[in-house]
Amino acid sequence: MWLPLLGMIAGILIGSMLALSIPGAYVKYLSVAVLASLDSVFGGIKALLEEKFDGAILLSGFFTNALLAALLAYLGDRLGVDLYLAAVFAFGVRLFQNLAIIRRKVFEHWIHKKRQHPVGEEKDAENR
Questions:
Q1: Closest CA to 41 of 10, 70, 72
Q2: pTM
């Protein structure tokens, strides 16, 4: 479970250290692609916690979602409509849903471990 999180943190740190400027014309495309990719990452973490993780599904979803979001933004630019907002809305909602599920699963796991090993019982066992 920690490997995807470490990879995401490493990517954020490397990206923030590089002085890379993106031309203004591509900002919309990159922003929706990043949002779609984050949705895939959180979906992968959720699948890992639910013990349904499949690396091929994560990778295909990662690139497919990013490509679809960028294509929506491009098509919207060509039509004169802000279609990228549809991608922002869809992936934003999914991102928050996945984050809520991850939070709930981690909390349930923590509560379950705490109930199995109460703090008072460990101290009592050590004193005996």
A1: 10
A2: 0.71
